[in-house]
């Protein structure tokens, strides 16, 4: 086992123990909850939840205690429900932040010219039809019906396959508004990639103001400046123009002080697609010699990684298949999906060298199958994180052996035609034809 992964896993295993020292922040009844070591003590509750409870709770508990191999009898599902209520949602929120910070601390981070390459995008999902959930998460509906629903903008590290940040907001707030409010929190070593839904002058201005950088795809009809650039046939051009009234007003509302006639300087880049279509990218990276224009087409293509992440979370992990109907436990379910995703990415890291050797002997490059590895991780996470540390090495070897047996080929340059589909209420999970549920 590589030392970085041992350190990463140690940070995750340590967090539940550190929480016991500050119960007022994480327990519903500080001083009373988790003071005795029962069958479902804190660490067991945490890792049981992170393995995603997708079947009936009685079956999940029977499997869980069987994987522990301690000879104990499984507790009742009522005991599990009561134990979960003791933990506040903040526990899993902070645990997710720990999983991100530890990843960046212990692993060698892949970068592009010194930048961590992030993408941001949002997606929505429904929750169980309960009044309490609608009041907490928000409602979404039409003239016929209302359902509890929420949107989740993600920040996703494209080169390290990591969910780096999550926010949640109601359907009544536009994604671009949420993105504007978050630019001030983006580290300066981030190059953020946005799709056409975030096209504006406000976001690049904010990135420059807070000394970070971005790449945004613009519609060909975004502005007269873009139209002139398209018709000019140029590959790239640096533009300086005055901010429009709406942009100035939005920036002032965000607390940005502007001088009269404030301008923005950015760079437009033309990308020609294999099918003959033209894409226009806006970037705040103005140095043409250091950041060559052909690189930006590949950077934007990597943005598909966040779409794949959404597919894994919502389809393979079955995000909307909740194990509970209370606000507290639904929050636990939601954060557990992203914790499992990051743990899965960390477990794939030590396999990099073995996969390179395998690819050297094959016609195509192969990668871990996230659907299969997630199903296996449900069992192995319990052993890796709850069994004695002396058994850790053997558990990891077995898990890695199974992952290397189930690699799937990469599909570089895949350009599948996008087909929009209307999703009905019964269509909760979408699966590719050649994949089956692993949970």
Percentage of β-strand residues: 15-25%
- Give the ordered list of helices and strands: HHHHHHEHEEEHEHEHEHEEHHHHEHHE
End-to-end gap: 27 Å
Number of domains: 2
What is the residue-averaged pLDDT? 91
Multimeric status of the protein = single chain
Structural class: alpha+beta
Cα shape: globular
Number of strands: 11
Residue windows where pLDDT falls under 50 for at least 5 positions:
none
CA gyration radius, whole angstroms: 24 Å
Residues in helices, as a percent range: 40-55%
Structure, described:
The chain has 439 residues and is α+β, with helices and mostly antiparallel strands. The protein folds into two domains: 3-91 and 326-409, no CATH class; 109-305, no CATH class. It is built from 17 helices and eleven strands. The protein has helices at 3-19, 23-26, 42-50, 57-68, 77-84, 89-106, 131-137, 175-182, 202-209, 224-232, 245-253, 294-301, 304-316, 327-348, 352-360, 370-386, 392-405; strands at 116-126, 139-141, 146-157, 162-166, 190-194, 213-218, 236-242, 263-272, 278-283, 366-367, 408-409. Strands 1, 2, 3, 4, 5, 6, 7, 8 and 9 form a nine-stranded mixed sheet that branches. The longest helix is centred in the C-terminal third of the chain and has 22 residues, at 327-348.
